[in-house]
Design brief:
CATH topology of the largest domain: Elongation Factor Tu (Ef-tu), domain 3
Number of strands: 12
CATH class of the largest domain: Mainly Beta
Number of domains: 2
Number of helices: 4
Shape: elongated
Helix content: 10-25%
Distance between the termini: 61 Å
Radius of gyration: 21 Å
Oligomer: single chain
């Protein structure tokens, strides 16, 4: 079902994760991955579910009945999820929505837009994005740096600039994320210098 619209100019955009059942009437607390939840979670909005294959919800979609903020938390009610037991069966499900490629939210990119981009630190190319992994807490850019793959949390503090048109992402990684790579090459250079 996820693939059905890919050849018709559609892609899937991850917009939220169901984190826990809320109350007794089937409500679920949401972790939001969208800047505009009021527009995304309107009554009738349909989402593709990312759940384990063993889940009875695998391959199914859900439809929003109601979205509201309760005690500061975003909460969603879904069609055919009428009690706490049904809601608990959806905990940890990730919600995806079909999105036209011409309609992109600010700070949202499709995986295929990121794969192949140069990864730049301090004006030097240090690797290439080879894939994006969607984890429950956050997305990870998998960067091929030399012979190694480095997992870079795809958060604004570490990846402040994504320049798809320019073919690059700028990273400001914390100490230790790429340094092991530098240490290895420094040791190899030192060994080569000592051998000469």
């Amino acid at each position: 079902m996820v693939q059905k619209d890919r050849n018709q100019g559609k892609n899937q955009l991850r917009v939220g994760r169901l984190v826990k059942a809320h109350g007794l009437k089937g409500a679920l607390k949401l972790e939001l991955y969208t800047d505009n939840p009021e527009r995304r979670f309107t009554p009738g909005a349909e989402f593709t579910l990312q759940v384990p294959e063993a889940s009875p919800w695998h391959g199914k979609t859900v439809t929003v009945r109601e979205y509201r903020v309760m005690n500061g938390n975003p909460v969603v009610f879904l069609d055919d999820v009428d009690d706490r037991t049904a809601a608990e069966g959806l905990v940890r499900a990730i919600l995806w929505i079909d999105q036209d490629t011409n309609e992109v939210e600010e700070n949202a990119w499709f995986d295929q837009q990121l794969v192949g981009l140069d990864v730049v630190r301090d004006d030097a190319v240090i690797g290439t994005v080879v894939r994006v992994e969607h984890m429950p807490a956050q997305d990870l850019l998998i960067v091929k740096a030399g012979e190694n793959e480095v997992m870079v949390p795809f958060v604004e503090a570490i990846v402040p600039t994504v320049d798809v048109a320019g073919g690059r992402v700028v990273v400001t990684p914390p100490a230790g994320l790429f340094e092991e790579l530098a240490d290895t090459s420094d040791e190899e250079e030192s060994a080569a210098d000592a051998a000469e």
